[in-house]
Write a structure and sequence with these properties.
The protein has helices at 14-25, 32-36, 39-62, 79-84, 97-105, 116-128, 141-150; strands at 3-7, 29-31, 67-70, 89-94, 133-135. By secondary structure, it is an alpha/beta fold.
Length: 152
Amino acid sequence: MLRVALGGPMASGKSTVGRALSVRMGGPFVDLDAALGNIPALFAAHGEPGFRELETAALAHAVCSNGVLALGGGTLTREVNRGLLAGWTVVILTASRETLRARLAASSGRPLADGWEQLLDERAAIWAAYGPSVSTDSLDVERVVDEVLLRC
């Protein structure tokens, strides 16, 4: 069983692609944000630093088994999290700014959505360090899954 983690910016399709990838691979799927619960409430109660600690604890638990992980947009910003993912194939999902803008406009409840373009710029080097990336601009999910598997 492969161990694949999907990283990248918010609204890049990590949860959608992760679910489909896990079905294709026949293994479990963990959406790290869903595992954490109510993200806006966690941000409100703990701030971003406290949220990141909770995220790291959830990741430490999730990496104990095989399967597919959909990481939060900021998960890879912490060195400890990158260390926890040693032994996992990390594939970065990308999308154009126009695509991300449209997807974010159609969603709600993302605490850092207002500053998403700045976060995209700040995190670009971290995501680029992982090498393999797959564009989800078309978000033909099965095709994106094929592309992810080619990079594993």
